[in-house]
Amino acid sequence: MPFNIDEFKSGIGSGLASPAYFRVLFTGAIVDSEGVRLLSLLCNSATLPGRLISTNEYTTHGPTIKLPYTTIYDDIVLGIYCTETMEVKRLFDDWMNFIQNTNTTNEFSYYDDYTSDIIIEQMNANGETIYACKLLDAYPTMIAPMPLNWASQNEFQNLQVTIACRTWQEEPLSLSPFGTHLRVNSLYPNFDISGALGETGAAIFSNVDGQFMSKVTQGMSFAKNTMKSSKSETQHQT
């Protein structure tokens, strides 16, 4: 049967999802409240995570079959524009330095202290979230080098950060921390919480995700993840 364009249009319904409509939310307390919105505004590229089931070949009689034995979650890469203060770069430098302080003992911090959850949302052209996934226990494993060039007068510094996670899961849309206040607009298609901030005053707190946000200034800083139970504190108490 030849391809029928009308049948194709009818089959896709309201349209195809565009990779240009998305937002990335850093939840938990690993990033201070004033930096959460700015990071989401500046995050210009991301990847919905994949999943690989590793297998071993097994043969008794007849054709070889493949049996699964573990699941592998690939790292994702976030692209984040840097402002002229370079605070985005400093934020991830501090995060990496907290994981392993190369200035002193080179020891690694406790896993629960430096990991955080990250939500990646796919949106439609109307600004509605149509799919969301949460990276559980995420943390940066690589900050890519940032080239400098006199010829790049009309370009912007775009920080590439590789993120690893323990696992990921689809996030129910009903658990969206900010409901209908997060909408796409023409200036910032990734993130806009001005309506929510205007209605709720100085801050928003989500009991679902442990995410706290306040009105944004031009600053951000790394913070140890106090939303998780710290192993180091537990051992200290015992």
Helix content: 10-25%
Helix-strand category: alpha+beta
Order of helices and strands: HEHEEEEHHEEEEHEEH
Question: How many strand elements?
Answer: 11
Shape descriptor reads globular
Query: What's the Cα radius of gyration?
Result: 21 Å
Strand content: 25-35%
In round numbers, the mean pLDDT is: 76
Number of domains: 1
Give the number of helices: 6
**Main sheet, how many strands, which sense, barrel?**
7 strands, antiparallel
Low-confidence stretches: 177-218
Distance between the termini: 72 Å
Summed up, what is this model?
The protein has one domain (21-56, 66-237).
Summarize the structure in words.
21% of the residues lie in helices and 30% in strands. With 238 residues, it is of the alpha+beta class. The protein has one domain. Strands 1, 2, 5, 6, 7, 8 and 9 form a seven-stranded antiparallel beta sheet that branches. Strands 3-4 form a two-stranded antiparallel ribbon. Strand 10 and strand 11 form a beta hairpin. The radius of gyration is 21 Å and the shape is globular.
Question: Which tags fit this structure?
Answer:
alpha+beta; 238 residues; two-stranded antiparallel sheet; globular
What is the topological layout?
Elements: H1 5-12, E1 22-26, H2 33-42, E2 43-45, E3 52-58, E4 65-72, E5 76-81, H3 87-99, H4 111-114, E6 116-123, E7 129-143, E8 158-164, E9 167-170, H5 194-200, E10 203-206, E11 211-214, H6 231-237
Antiparallel strand pairs: 1-6, 2-5, 3-4, 5-8, 6-7, 7-8, 7-9, 10-11
